[in-house]
Amino acid sequence: REETTRSVNVSGTANFGLSFLEDHDIETTTLWLRNTDDETEVFDFTNENRSFDEGFRDTRLEFEEREMLTNQIRGTHYLGNDTRARFPILDRLLGWLPTETHVEWFYSDSDAETDIPNRVLVANQQTTIDPNTGRVTDSFVTTQSDAASFRFVDLDDQVETYGWKGALPLEWGSNFVEFSGGYTHAQKVREFRLFEYGLGVPGSSQEVRSSTSLGDVFADSIIGDPAKNAEISRKDARDSYIAATVTDSVFGAVDWTWNDTWRVVAGGRWEDYRQASVPWDPFSFSSTSPQVDLGDVDSDTFESSDFAFQDDKIYPSFALTYMGSFWAETFQARLSYSETTVRPDLREITDSSYTDPVTDYLTRGNPGVIPSDVEAIDLRFEWFFANSDNFTITAFRKDIDRPITYFFTPASDTTIARGIDNAVSAEVTGIEIEGLKELGFLGGWGDMFFVQGNATIQETELLPGDPATGQGNVDVSCLETEGTAISANNCQLPGASEYVINFMLGFDSPDSKHTASLIYNVFGERVFSLTRSQGTGEPIPDIVEEPFQSLDLTYFWYPTDRLTFKVKVQNILNDTVELTTGGITTFEEDPGTSYSATVSWSF
After folding, report:
1. Beta partners for residue 481, in sequence order
2. Which terminus of the chain is more solvent-facing, meaning fewer CB atoms within 10 Å of its CB: N or C?
């Protein structure tokens, strides 16, 4: 696969702030991003239907433009001394409240658009391959029906969030208590419109050799020749959809500290969540509402329960902390419990398909996917030393109900496809160690260096299906890397590694004009996607992502308060991304080593 991309990126930000009486702040932020990619790709491949000296070629020309505009406004208001002096009525009515009493509010509106004004794909060109070198020696295009396809895509995302929260701190004796609460509203709406057409000569098997450019193959002299009877055919438009999620939340908490030794935090969050995805045909229009260009939503093809979901729950949380000086200037031990939820993305709750940007695997959403509920409990010990050194160790456990998981699905020929669904349950248990250590004990030069890192070791267990209840995907093969069958109650949770290690060596110059960091991280083998059993045949092992070792170097130089130089080198070890199935490599990507230099000046 050879691909050339020309990218153009433009961005802009604008910020405005207003302070009043030192108790009130209002800030606005506007962010604008725009980028375009002009891509050309030639993909040579073969499959199980061809001999070693025969193959296919796909040629793709695509222009994509993306733009996002975000506007935010937020405010913070304290009932401070300046406010009480300027507005005596507030002092008379609310003078009993502490000066730290405050309210925060925010509003944000974002609009993101993706347009592909034309994507041309000439697929399945026939090729002749040298079996010794793998090089294509000859190719031809068959100008039959759908010899070329033309795709036009419009995607519009609108996100609106707003809310407020307030805090009331009280202090007496050895007690400090803060009451807090608030409300948030979040709404996401996506409109996805896809038009696709085929171009060719039905019933024709005319071959055009590779020496002729594709522009000549589909020239006006061929397409416009009445004798050739070329036609444009409309592709299936069922991938177009409208999807939305809406969440309203009300929350509150009590934070109580006694004698700077014990701290109790207890709270709850009530959330009302709604999701819906509606397929529609952009080629159809309502005769009663011709001004609406969304096309007709085919309400006869689904029941309301197939595309809509609503749920409201209360998610509690609790934490108990002990603070002292055990083995360090500051020591903390915390036991915490919380409940939360993980919700699917907009494209995951539709029946539309998309291409994974990393692997090019065909991925299909599922309108029946619902959120996953998570219960988490952890025990954490922290030591903070006078010289900024610190050390933390945490034991944790998570129970996930109806985890959202990717499963591979049957596809034709060499196409690799996967879908999304809810499994029955999952468990995650593990331990995490993290810390920071300055190197001043090595001598004078050591004062400029420090090391920081963390390591996580965990064990996961996934129940994809329960034959007794009929829930989940009971036909998942659930195999280890070596292809040995294991219990269906003991699958590894996709995306979770048995270990993750991050390590950083940092440098800060005494004059604060130079900083640098050398960062290394690695994760253990993890399941990329589960596979389904193939009837009575041999089950297929899960696709596994092999460990990836990353080493990055970043250096900053600040010659003045306004001028900054930055140099960054990524993937110094030149490692590759690799997916395997039963020990056989099925996908490999070499991202290479990247270098960048940036100069910025602020005013």
Report:
1. none
2. C
d(CA 22, CA 481): 61
Task: For 76-109, give one letter per residue: b (16+ CB within 10 A) or e.
Answer: ebbbbeebbeeeeeebeeeeeeeeebbeebbbbe
Strands 417-422 and 362-364: parallel
Find the angle CA(451)-CA(455)-CA(459) to the nearest 5 degrees: 180
Neighbours of 293 (CB within 10 A): 10
Q: 10 Å Cβ neighbour count for 37?
A: 15
* DSSP symbols for 213-230: -HHHHT-HHHHT-TTTT-
* Whole-number pLDDT of residue 236: 66
CA distance 135 to 44: 9
Q: How far is 346 from 241, CA to CA, in rounded Å?
A: 10
* Dist CA 195 CA 197 (whole Å): 7
Amino acid at 249: S
Do the beta carbons of residue 200 and residue 146 sit within 8 Å?
yes
Per-residue model confidence as pLDDT tens digits over 453-502: 999 999 998 888 754 454 555 455 554 433 333 334 457 888 899 999 99
Q: Which residue has the tokens 């959809």?
A: 241
User: Is residue 422 within 8 Å of residue 470, measured between CB atoms?
Assistant: no
Predicted TM-score (pTM) of the model is 0.81
Q: Which of 248, 363, 250, 241 is nearest to 294 (CA)?
A: 241
CB 423 within 8 A of CB 464: yes
Q: Do the Cβ atoms of 44 and 87 come closer than 8 Å?
A: no
Closest CA to 275 of 244, 304, 313: 244
How many angstroms separate the CA atoms of 514 and 174, rounded? 44
If we measure between CA atoms, which residue out of 366, 415, 354 comes closest to residue 586? 415
What one-letter code names the amino acid at 122?
V
> Residue 208 in contact with residue 140, Cβ under 8 Å?
yes
In the β-sheet with 577-581, what is the strand arrangement from edge to edge?
353-355, 362-364, 417-422, 404-409, 526-531, 543-545, 577-581, 584-589
179, 109 contact by CB (below 8 A): no
In sequence order, which residues have a C-beta less than 8 Å from that of residue 9 and are 6 or more positions away?
33, 34, 35
Provide the token pair at 42.
Answer: 């030639």
Nearest one of 460, 359, 476 to 422, comparing CA atoms: 476
Greatest alpha-carbon span in the chain: 97
Report the C-alpha gap between 585 and 507 in whole angstroms.
Answer: 39
Tell me which DSSP letter residue 255 carries: E
- Smallest CA-to-CA distance from 239 within 284, 197, 286, 281 is with 281
Which residue has tokens 């055009």? 208
Rounded to an integer, what distance in angstroms lies between the CA atom of residue 477 and that of residue 536? 11
3-state secondary structure 380-416: EEEEECCCCCEEEEEEEEEEEECCEEEEEECCCCCCC
DSSP 85: H
pLDDT tens-digit map of 146-165: 788 999 999 999 999 999 99
Tell me the average pLDDT across 404-411: 80
Could you give the dihedral angle defined by the CA atoms of residues 186, 341, 524 and 534, in that order, rounded to the nearest 10 degrees? -100
Nearest C-alpha neighbor of 122 from the set 150, 148, 151: 148
